[in-house]
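Running this now, will post back.
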Amino acid sequence: MTPSELEAQVISPLAAFYQQVEQQPDRVAYIQPYAGGVIKQWRWAEVADEAERVASHLLAQGLQRGDRVILFSKNCAHWIMADLAIWMAGGVTVPLYPNLAAETIRQIIEHSGANYAFVGKLDNFEAMAPGLPETLPIIRFPDAPEITDSSDWETILTSSEPLAERTEPDMDELATIVYTSGTTGMPKGVMHSFRTVGNTGILSGLLYDANANDRCLSYLPLAHVAERAALETAQLYSGFTVYFAYSLDTFAEDLQRARPTLFFAVPRIWMKFQQGVLAKVGESKLSFLKRLPILGNIIRRKLLEGLGLDQTRVALSGASPLSISLIEWYRDLGLEIQEGYGMTENFAYSHSTPVGESVPGTVGRANPAVECVISDIGEVLVRSPTTMVGYYKAPEITAETLTEDGFLRTGDQGRIDQDGRLHITGRVKELFKTSKGKYVAPAPIENRLLANSLIEQVCVTGANLPQPIAVLNLNDVAQSEIASADSVKAIANELAAHLDTLNQTLDPHERLSCLIAVPERWTPENGFTTPTLKIKRNVIDETYAEHYEAWSTQGAKVIFK
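Update: finished.
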């Protein structure tokens, strides 16, 4: 689809929503689990009724066109209904990750100038609550924590009438400000209009031939554009059913309930699935069973069925690279994972791999209506109809990020092969220089280290060291086993062998002097990763840098701390 063809077809996400309401009012839109095994579902007409009543309430409270409204909750049907209600009332949605620190919450609310907030289920609200100003009007979702002087969603439904008339936003009006996950500092507010959101909805749906018969499970943060694009926005234009996960403890049950036909996950989730299978069956036993005639295929089907992915026709991965070995492991089960590429700045729509054309090590070709070039310094530049309006209150940074002819400077290094596939080779700003004056790109090395299932997360670092090193988290099973002398020796030997094999494939200046397994788990809660589970290199370096020289000169290939 060309940009001009897209322009002729695009409608706002609100208009797309009302099309679904008119065309399939009695079809189920959302299925939401609650505590105690309670399951609630909403039909499209019911979604419209609730969203319109909440929109009416917002207007009655004085919300003005363009007012910013916070969305602060774990994923649930009410998150999307609130998003719709905010748009219906003329507001701008500002989503917050459900695991942010109080100080970051305060910074985003102050920076955005938000006037209202919706708050839903949160795991550690007591620690986050100080970030919410006492004067901020709050509407509570069901399952939200108790908040003094707040309004209740269910009460609003009974006390408010639906909107008297539906309003259609101007396509170039601001729809949402999405704050980046902040791998290096204060998040930036990325502005998207109804046009860029709408373009994403149409294009994403067409890309994977999404339709009303599809099913998706929502569990990755809706505050991130990837989940919002692939799930919320695509649904408004395609009309499929969205299931929600209640909690980490119920995730397996929730996945089984949904049996998604479209499934999106980040690499760490795909690794967890694999580790769960191997922990139950064992790698050698599984390899043996899969080789057996007839039985091998039955085993493969049963494994996918056990994961809840036996009906998945499109399996997507994004946020960071998948190891080639992991892609091949799933392919052997009969599930082809398609890697995609995108950023908050282009609403996660840039590159992907069509079904049947997956090539490990690439993120695919440019999506329809997307142009991609490589700059003279090797940076990936992308131009598309989904590119942001700019950064909120940051015109200088916007000018630095967007070229005069509309290309987005991604900050990623890459190359385009002869078949038009994009290979991401690192981050422009992640390059570091060793004491020998050689530059090292950590991302490709990290990706190859992750081919070993013992390693869950890894950071290649070592600025000003003779050779780079790798700091890592072992998977949960391996971490628990290193207390045993026999186990720690076996794990050390396997990691050392993996290191030797890897170093043979690297240029001399890239070869790692050692692997260091640290006991601290890198999570969003302790600040080592972003809410989307990307490592924060600056935090890792700040935490461990004082030990780097000693580790690198210790002489051991594998070090356990």
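The longest strand covers residues 408-416. More later if anyone needs it.
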